[in-house]
Design goal:
alpha/beta; Rossmann fold; P-loop_NTPase; ATP binding; ATP-binding protein
Length: 483
Amino acid sequence: MPKTLAVGPDYLIRGVPEIDANPLIAHVPLPPETDNDAFMALALRPDFNPLDRDLPNSIRRLRIKRLRRFYVPTLRVHRQALIDVSSNILDGYIPRNPMTAEGRALLYGGAADLAFKPTISLISGHSGMGKSALIDRILGHMGKQLHQHVRFDGKPFTEKQILFLRRNCPEHCTVGTLCSTFGNYTDNVLGLKLYSGIFSKLQGGSRTLYLSEITKIIKTHHVGVLVIDEFQNLSLMGVGAKKIIAFLVNLRDELGLPIVVVGTYKALRLLEGDMSTARRLVEGGYYDLERPTSAEDSSWTDLCQIAWEYQWVKNPIEFDAEICETLYDVSQGITGLMISAFAFAQLAAIDDETERVDAALIRKVYLERMKPLHPAIRILQSGNPILMDKFDDLYRNLWPKQERPEGYRNPEPCALSSGEPVTQTQIEPEEAETTASPKRTRSGRNSVATSPEKVKPVLSDEQVKKMVLADSVADLISILDKR
């Protein structure tokens, strides 16, 4: 059998010496030139053909699931994040060029002697706003994760390059557990067993030992960027969180490695009262995926109008202001919830044979098929900063996946302390004003302001949780305002 020849990356000539002469970035796409280029690079639309509306019901139900592969960067911050993060990756590779004396010295044990250190960037927002999807699209723009080089500029260069390493921050994270996840993950990327065994032997070792092993991975495989998702888990660690942040700063400083951290607003608590930590975690850029404050927000209207094109029902109607307002009411501007409600409504329209999605059906689907999320939605409707602080945990606990499988059965309605189930009509007058929310002027970002003064709580956290699950929002607001 003939032997297959290894083919390296496709190196390009851009007319820029520091890029053209560097095998680690000569093949990597440049950052987008314009805001429109960034939009096109990030956008992900599902395959759609209007003729699909004539397909059998079973096939159309499958087509509707394609909405999970829908991503439209309508916020300016989406496009800015792509431009900045991709620029940071390229900039981090420039002094690490293995074809230069400086780059080889760094590769074989030297420290990065850089006039300007690579940066740490922070992407934040509520659960369901597409933070992880955004970093997916950014990394996708950068190209393949693993590259096998063969020759460069007529010389042998048989190096493996890992463009990015990305892991979720474990709950109750320590430097050791975080490093171990990167060891296992690197083995999976390489298709080898090199590092997982090493980290298992280091359990209980010092931070210096873990840093040494992570350094080997980054240098040996020319890692371009480290991405840490679910960064809010560090808020559970107290003093331990500062050790992990210090560890990340060490990686950046010693290796010249850009880092991106992604998390909910709870991650911002790590910045409170510590100007040095705050500066380090956002010096590469802070990208706040704010939820829109009303259905009139132009980015929300654009998002809903584009999504509305993807209807597999036989009798689609035109997009209008009522549809836009209804989609906002049932999602409160959380992108993932809007897409779920839209998909559920199409499934319902097929099931009831009306083959038509309108505002009334969207509301009906929300009441019947998205019942677990009602407490979380009411928190957003309330606009109360203390309750808002609990939204992300509630969202993740009650709706851990963006889309539930077909046939998902709703739980029985939550009960009040009296034992009577809560229904839409059993809302106290104070709560009715909240749920109607004719004026939505507060965004979830307000929830990450400085924490309220610590006083003796009126209720325990467990009691608060039970009240939230029972939709007793009005009572919670009055009680928590006193905490």
